[in-house]
Design brief:
With about 290 residues, the protein is of the alpha+beta class. The chain has 2 domains: about 110 residues, no CATH class; about 150 residues, Lipocalin, CATH 2.40.128. Helix content is about 20%, strand content about 30%. The chain has 3 helices and 16 strands. The strands form 3 sheets. Strands 1, 2, 3, 4, 5, 6, 7, 8, 9 and 10 form a 10-stranded antiparallel β-sheet that branches. Strands 13-12-15-16 form a 4-stranded mixed β-sheet, with no helix packed on it. Helix 1 runs antiparallel to helix 3. The radius of gyration is 20 Å and the shape is globular.
Length: about 290
């Protein structure tokens, strides 16, 4: 049964207060410096799809971050070879990061090329792992390159990224953290606060799903069909899934007419799942899947 508006309001307000208290007591993340690593990316252009698997050494991605408090910026470089025999051009991109948002355990930004990055901070600030997804912009995939059809493919990148602090910076970050305030002990109350944040996000998602369904789906009466923008990967055994969104419906259906059904192949962008499903590891799953919402 879907939650009532009053239930959603209680779930959002009460846990959020405890979550805010926990965040206020948590030490600020220091993500400044150089991050390098690998990436598995796909460039989806109608009639011409390119896949890139960039290694960690030499690094396919180089991320530079600097800032403090709420003011963060930087740059990112992507260099990756195409799949052998694909006829795709090498990927070589340089973007600036005008503003980045650093949260409790994450960093997110949209680079100057229109790519949205959502990265989780793992292993005591030594690793960043998450998703990259094209959001806006009309940049060519490679200067002067044309597909066999004669068209110029544009950059429409999406995929997974895993970065580590550059050599020498891990020790420096650890030393800086040791010189500051001692690591805060996680109490039962703080665990409840974090759980509250999750419950609040799920309540918002449920409310959004309810609102969209009420507005009309493919009900045979002209209702707008919507799909799920949620795209998840599994970080590691025992770690939570990394997802680009908690809201599970309300997005356009990309190249499909009504979204990819359960167990179908998806990418969360050009092939999003039907409303109510989540694109987990490339397959549409319901609430009982590997990354439940």
């Amino acid at each position: 049964m879907l939650p009532t508006a009053r239930t959603v309001l209680v779930l959002v307000l009460l846990p959020s207060l405890s979550g805010e208290t926990a965040r206020a007591q948590s030490p600020a993340l220091d993500l400044s410096g150089t991050w390098t690593g690998g990436a598995i990316l796909t460039n989806d252009w109608p009639g011409f799809t390119c896949r890139y698997e960039g290694a960690e050494d030499p690094p396919a991605v180089r991320l530079e971050l600097s800032g403090e408090g709420a003011q963060w910026n930087g740059s990112v470089a992507i260099d990756a070879p195409p799949a052998e025999g694909s006829g795709c051009p090498p990927l070589s991109k340089r973007y600036s990061i005008p503003a980045a948002h650093v949260g409790d355990a994450s960093v997110s930004f949209t680079d100057s090329g229109g790519n949205e990055w959502n990265l989780a901070v793992r292993r005591e600030e030594a690793e960043l792992m998450g998703l990259l997804a094209w959001k806006t912009g009309d940049e060519s995939l490679a200067a002067g390159f044309k597909a066999p059809s004669g068209t110029t493919p544009l950059a429409r990148l999406s995929g997974e990224v895993k970065l580590r602090r550059a050599a020498g910076e891990v020790q420096a970050a650890a030393a800086a953290a040791g010189a500051g305030a001692p690591r805060e002990k996680v109490t039962v109350g703080k665990r409840i606060g974090h759980l509250g944040a999750v419950l609040a996000a799920n309540a918002v998602a449920a409310g959004a799903l309810y609102g969209v369904n009420k507005a009309g789906r493919s009900d045979g009466q002209g209702g707008a069909v919507t799909c799920s923008p949620r795209n998840c990967i599994i970080a590691a055994l025992g770690e939570p899934c990394l997802c680009n969104a908690n809201v599970i419906s309300g997005a356009p259906c990309g190249t499909t007419t009504s979204g990819v059904p359960q167990a179908g192949v998806c990418d969360g962008m050009m092939l999003p799942c039907q409303s109510g499903f989540s694109c987990n590891r490339g397959f549409c799953e319901d609430r009982a899947g590997a990354c439940p919402f």
